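Friendly challenge for the regulars: who can give me the structure tokens for this chain first? No prize, just bragging rights.
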Amino acid sequence: MTYMWIILALSLAVSSVGWFYFIYFFSIGYGFTISALSVATAIIFRDVMTLPIALLCAVLFIYGIRLALFLLIREKKSQSYKKILYQPDNTKKKPAFVMTMIWLSCALLYVGQASPATFYLYNITEGLPVNEAWAWAGMVIAALGILIEAVADAQKNRAKKVNPGRYVDTGLYRIVRCPNYFGEVLMWTGSFIICFGACCNVWQWIIAALGYIGIVYVMFSGARRLEMRQTETYGNDPAFKAYIKKTPLIIPFVPIYSVAKHSWLQA
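First reply, four minutes later:
Bragging rights claimed.
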């Protein structure tokens, strides 16, 4: 299991950017860590690398770099984002113990998220009969997820340039209110289902499942925060009220229109 210690050490090292500002544990630290883990997996298991897993590693690398750079640029250019990022609760100094626990939790979560490809390749080295069809299916789903997320972000940027003070309900936002979060859930779903063809043992399943459940929880938590901010900003607008009543929050065609009352979705 030496490879897992290497992966964990790398995750801790890259995500430690959060010690400069704790929000970075979840934002740019997250993006750069996922990219780093995908590269590490490709290097460690280069001798048994398969085409679908190589493509998945590339997808995760692109995703992580894109996310981290997108957030850095938005922090520099967007005053509204800076206001959210540097609100008083975020800038208040956290105790060292709390910071350490956040750091460890994030690093472990990111390892779990990226683990299916790692387990797939490791189990090849063990001579286990992996199923490449699952790897191809997972890679395609993950690639579709990152494409949806990128398109959603681009559509939102265009819409906000035209009308900065209005919520976005065009493009993919006609179908679902948080298409970028849906894209990320889809991407990690693709990564996770690789386990079905990876001959994973019980511990590998547990690690991968915790990573997947954890990121889905984070996405719903993020959707909840966005819902509450939008309700505060646009809640008196009749058109907005009609929009949120007919448009699912995060999963297209699944009639979940609000999670604001679920306080347990607070990450």
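The radius of gyration is 19 Å. The chain is about 70% helix and 0% strand. Your move, everyone else.
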